[in-house]
Specification:
Layout (H helix, E strand, L loop, with lengths): L5 E7 L7 H9 L7 E7 L3 H18 L4 E6 L11 E4 L5 H14 L11 H25 L4 E4 L4 H11 L3 E4 L3 H12 L8 E8 L2 E9 L2 E2 L4 H8 L1 H4 L1 H10 L2 E3 L2 H4 L9 H7 L8 H20 L4 H4 L6 H10 L3 E8 L12 E9 L2 E4 L7 H23 L2 H10 L9 H11 L13
Parallel strand pairs: 1-2, 1-4, 2-3, 4-5, 5-6
Antiparallel strand pairs: 7-8, 8-9, 8-10, 11-12, 12-13
Helix pairs in contact: 1-2, 2-12, 3-17, 4-5, 4-15, 5-15, 15-16
Length: about 450
C-alpha cells in the first residue's frame, strides 16, 4: 500500500493531444486522496511539450490546486527518480508516423481501419515502441523500483507484455473501449442508465467479448439481438452485430477496431459493396479529432477555458490509483499476462480481463472458458504479439516476419516479407542499431 497522499507522476509522451491534459484533469479532481505532488512532463518534441506545459500550468491555477508542481523534461531520466506513477502516452515517430504506416501498407494492398493494434501497422508500432518502454522500464528498476507503469500507448497489449515479461516493473494497461461500448449499449440499445448495466468481458485489447449483461440482477443478454435490430444499432455497428451472430458474444470496442481482426471486412471490393463506415483509416476525421484537442490546448493557454470547463476524461487510471493508495476496492478492465484467467487461452498471452484492485495490487478475475472459436481467435493473436515483442526486444527480422505471416490483415498482402522490409526501412533511423544488420 502507498502510505502517502502526495504523489509524483511522470508522463512519457506528454505532448500527446489526446491524453495528458485529460489524465491530469482526472488527477486534479481527486482532491480527497491526492493532496498534491509533482507532474513531470516528458517529450522530445519541445514545441508540443511547451504547449502542454503552459496549458497545464493554467489548468492548475484555475483548479486552485497550488499543491502541484509542474516540470518539463526532454530527457526521460530526469523524471524517473522518486516517481510513483508513470504514464506512457507516446508513439515513436509521433502522429506523422501513423500516416506513413498507412501509406506504406496501402502500397502493398493492405487496408487498416485504425492500424495501431493489429495488422502490419500494429507490428511496426510494436517494433518501434517496445525498445522505448523497455529502456525506460529497465532504468526505473534502478531509480524507482516501487513505481507503477500505466500504459495508454498502442499496441496496448504488446507494450504491456514487453514490460511484464522483460522487466520487474509493476504495470497495467488501460483502454476505454470496452466500458465505452457497454455504455453505448446501455444508452442506445437498452435505454437505461449505464450505471445499471452490469457487464463482464474478456479477450484481447480492441477485441474483447462481452460475456455478461445484467440489469438489476436480471440477465438481459438474450434480448440483445432483438434490441439491436429494433433500435437500429445493428446498422450503426454492422460488423460487430454480424460477429455477434457468428460467435455468440458481442465484441468491443466497435466496428472501427474489431473489423481489423477479420481480414474479410477490409477488402476493397467488400468495403465498396457493403459501404462500411470504417474503411481504410480516414485521416481527415482523425485530424478533426486531433484539431479539437489542439484547440482545447489553445483555449487553456489563453484562459478561454479553465479546469471546470475542461472536465474529466472518463478514463479509469485514477480508480486504480485510489485503490492502490487507499485500499478502496475497484473492479476495472486491464491488460495482464494470462496465468489461467482464461482457461482456453494459452498462459503467457496478454489478455484484457476484469481485475480487482486493492492496496495489495491487481488481482485478475478468473474467467473460465470462452467459446472455442473466440478463444482460438484470441490465442493466435496473442501468440502473434509474443513474436512481435520478441522481435522488437531481440531485433530479429525472422520473428517479425513470423508475426506478419500469422497476422490476419497480412492475408490481404501479396508479399508480406516485402511489406515488412519497407516498414522497417522507413524507420531504420529510430530503431536500435542491430536492425541495420538486415538492411
Amino acid at each position: 500500500m502507498l502510505k502517502k497522499d502526495c504523489f509524483n507522476f511522470a508522463f512519457i509522451g506528454a505532448g500527446s493531444t489526446t491524453f495528458t491534459l485529460r489524465l491530469v484533469s482526472d488527477i486534479l479532481h481527486e482532491g480527497d486522496f491526492i493532496k498534491g505532488g509533482e507532474l513531470r512532463l516528458v517529450d522530445i518534441d519541445e514545441i508540443a511539450l511547451n504547449d502542454v506545459y503552459e496549458a497545464l500550468t493554467k489548468m492548475i491555477v484555475t483548479s486552485g490546486r497550488k499543491d502541484f508542481k509542474v516540470t518539463k523534461h526532454i530527457d526521460f531520466e530526469e523524471a524517473l527518480p522518486g516517481v510513483d506513477f508513470l504514464y506512457f502516452t507516446f508513439v515513436t515517430g509521433s502522429y506523422p508516423s501513423w500516416k506513413k504506416d498507412i501509406d506504406i501498407c496501402v502500397k502493398h494492398g493492405v487496408l487498416q481501419s485504425v492500424g495501431d493494434t493489429i495488422g502490419p501497422g500494429g507490428i511496426i508500432r510494436t517494433i518501434r515502441n517496445v525498445p522505448v518502454v523497455y529502456n525506460i522500464a529497465k532504468r526505473m528498476e534502478k531509480v524507482a523500483p516501487e513505481a507503477w507503469i500505466i500504459n495508454y500507448s498502442n499496441p496496448e497489449g504488446a507494450l504491456c507484455l514487453a514490460i511484464e515479461k522483460y522487466t520487474s516493473m509493476k504495470t497495467f494497461g488501460l483502454c476505454h473501449g470496452t466500458p465505452d461500448t457497454v455504455r453505448s449499449l446501455a444508452l442506445n440499445v437498452y435505454k437505461t442508465d449505464p450505471s445499471k448495466l452490469d457487464y463482464g468481458a474478456a479477450g484481447i485489447n480492441h477485441l474483447t467479448w462481452i460475456t455478461k449483461l445484467e440489469i438489476d440482477g436480471v440477465d438481459v443478454y438474450p434480448n440483445l439481438r432483438k434490441l439491436l435490430d429494433e433500435t437500429g444499432y445493428a446498422n450503426q455497428e454492422p460488423i460487430s452485430s454480424q460477429l455477434f451472430d457468428i460467435f455468440g458474444l458481442y465484441p468491443a470496442p466497435g466496428d472501427r477496431h474489431v473489423g481489423e481482426f477479420f481480414p474479410y471486412y477490409l477488402k476493397q471490393d467488400v468495403l465498396e459493396e457493403k459501404d462500411y463506415r470504417w474503411k481504410n483509416i480516414d485521416f481527415d476525421e482523425m485530424d478533426a479529432w486531433r484539431n479539437g484537442s489542439l484547440e482545447n490546448v489553445k483555449k487553456l493557454k489563453s484562459g478561454e477555458i479553465g479546469f471546470e470547463e475542461f472536465g474529466t476524461s472518463g478514463e479509469t487510471s485514477t480508480h486504480f490509483i485510489r485503490a492502490l493508495a487507499t485500499g478502496k476496492i475497484t473492479v476495472e478492465m486491464a491488460n495482464v499476462i494470462n496465468r489461467g484467467y482464461i482457461e482456453n487461452i494459452s498462459d503467457g498471452v496478454i489478455v484484457e480481463v476484469p481485475v480487482f484492485v486493492d492496496k495489495l495490487g491487481l488481482h485478475p478475475q478468473k474467467i473460465g472458458k470462452l467459446p472455442d472459436a473466440v478463444a482460438a481467435k484470441c490465442d493466435i493473436l496473442g501468440r502473434e504479439y509474443n513474436l512481435a515483442v520478441r522481435s522488437a526486444v531481440e531485433c530479429d527480422r525472422t520473428l517479425a516476419l513470423q508475426a506478419m505471416m500469422l497476422d490476419p490483415l497480412c492475408a490481404n498482402c501479396k508479399y508480406p516479407d516485402l511489406l515488412l522490409d519497407d516498414l522497417i526501412k522507413a524507420y531504420i533511423d529510430v530503431l536500435p542499431d542491430k536492425w541495420r544488420e538486415f538492411y
